[in-house]
Amino acid sequence: MSSPYTIRIVGDPVLRQRADEVTDIDGRLVKLCEDMVQTMYEAPGLGLAAPQVGVQKRFFVYDLGAGDGSQVLINPVITESDGEWEYYEGCLSVPGMGFDIVRPKQVHVTGIDLDGNEVSFEADELMARLMQHELDHLDGVLLLDHLDDEQRREAKKAIRQRAMAGPEDELPSAEPKRSRFRLR
Ligand code: ZN
Questions:
Q1: Is the C or the N end of the chain the one with fewer CB within 10 Å?
Q2: 64-91, pLDDT tens digit by residue?
Q3: CA of 63 to the centre of ligand 1 (A)
Q4: What is the distance in A from the centroid of ligand 1 to the CA of 10?
Q5: What is the pTM for the complete model shown?
Q6: How far apart are CA 3 and CA 174, in angstroms?
Q7: Where are the beta strands (DSSP E) in the chain?
Q8: Distance, CA 58 to ligand 1 centroid (Å)?
Q9: Ligand 1: distance of its center to the CA of 51 in Å?
Q10: What is the CB neighbour count within 10 angstroms for residue 161?
Q11: By the 8 A CB rule, do 21 and 138 touch?
Q12: How far apart are CA 19 and CA 21, in angstroms?
């Protein structure tokens, strides 16, 4: 079965806009989350934010594979962050590329789950990274924005070259050499 959604790729303006707060949790949102979870698993990725499938709303789905299944976080906010942690970070919207990026190691996150309950929790390391990365998407921020000038120039060049090669061309060598998890 093919994914319900096509994941939007860097260059798509929808990835650069600030998404709106979710005001209603209804059947439509539940269905959307189910379809996004399927799209995330098939990608495969550990998380997927609504703007990545063209939906300008503040929520994302994720599953770190710890056995809890997929989760949904709506209107998330990072209320505290602490420490520093470097992690080789990738993005389903910036395919085939990854970068060592330093971000806070721990974050405190609040938001709403799909049942409408308020949630509040601490996240560390990979979970904290996922939260920060997905929340960035809701603000129109991509991991490219966390690079220094030289890294960003290189990355943009690679993206342009890939665009010129066309979507039908397979570029197997473009996969990250270090095969850690891709966040989305
Ligand atoms: Zn991403």
A1: N
A2: 998 989 999 999 999 999 999 999 999 9
A3: 14
A4: 10
A5: 0.88
A6: 22
A7: 47-49, 59-62, 71-82, 85-90, 98-103, 106-112, 118-124
A8: 14
A9: 10
A10: 11
A11: no
A12: 7
CA–CA separation, 166 and 137 (whole Å):
25
Q: How far is CA 74 from CA 20, 34, 40, 45, 131, in A?
A: 11, 14, 17, 19, 12
Known catalytic membership, residue 134: yes
Within 10 A of 81 (CB to CB), how many other CB atoms are there?
A: 17
Tokens of 38: 């399927």
Other CB atoms within 10 Å distance of the CB of residue 140: 16
Find the catalytic residue in 118, 134, 170, 175. Answer: 134
* pLDDT per residue as tens digits for the range 81-122: 999 999 999 999 999 899 999 999 999 999 999 999 999 999
Instruction: From 33, 55, 141, select the one nearest 94 (Cα to Cα).
Output: 141
CA-to-CA distance for 28 and 34, rounded, in angstroms? 10
Residues whose CB is less than 8 angstroms from the CB of residue 82 and which lie 6 or more positions away in sequence, other chains included = 104, 105, 106, 107
CA distance 99 to 101: 6
3 state SS of 138: helix
| DSSP element (H, E) containing 52 | none
In angstroms, what is the span from residue 47 Cα to ligand 1's centroid?
8
Closest CA to 108 of 128, 94, 91: 128
